[in-house]
């Protein structure tokens, strides 16, 4: 039993579990938002469901519907999650600063020195 406790408490297992739960909840929110966007597209340009398109009996419409939903989802995640997160990281100063030329030279020397020891 102590081995199990040690396994659960080591590393980032609890943080990973929390992240998984949060991602699942966030996924539900994003799917609902995509449904709203799809319905707005439907009001503007007609029904956004292409499932009935079957040229030659091949159900390509299902793929087109999924593709449109994926593109909308990717745009939403990028503009409403990734960009604000990057901006917040830059404002808070937690973004990794870019290395200067002198730092790169020093790090290269350290790397080469470590390789020479092996």
Describe the structure.
With 118 residues, this protein is an all-alpha fold. Helices cover 77% and strands 0% of the residues. It has two domains: 1-46; 49-118, no CATH class. It contains four helices and no strands. Helix 2 (13-45) packs across helix 3. The longest helix has 33 residues, at 13-45. The protein starts with a helix and ends with a helix.
Determine the oligomeric state from the structure: single chain
Strand count, sense and closure of the main sheet? none
Low-pLDDT residue intervals, each spanning 5 or more residues = none
Give me the Rg, rounded. 24 Å
Tally of distinct domains? 2
Quick description:
It contains 4 helices and no strands.
Write the SSE topology.
Elements: H1 2-9, H2 13-45, H3 60-92, H4 101-117
Key phrases:
118 residues, mainly alpha, 2 domains, 77% helix
């Amino acid at each position: 039993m102590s081995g199990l406790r040690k396994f659960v408490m080591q590393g980032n297992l609890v943080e990973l579990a929390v992240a998984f739960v949060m991602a699942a909840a966030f996924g539900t929110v994003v799917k609902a938002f995509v449904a709203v966007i799809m319905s707005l597209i439907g009001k503007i340009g007609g029904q956004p469901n292409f499932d009935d398109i079957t040229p030659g009996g091949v159900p390509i419409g299902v793929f087109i519907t999924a593709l449109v939903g994926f593109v909308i989802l990717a745009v939403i995640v990028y503009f409403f999650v990734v960009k604000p997160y990057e901006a917040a990281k830059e404002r808070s100063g937690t973004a990794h600063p870019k290395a200067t030329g002198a730092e790169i030279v020093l790090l290269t020397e350290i790397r080469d020195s470590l390789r020479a020891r092996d």
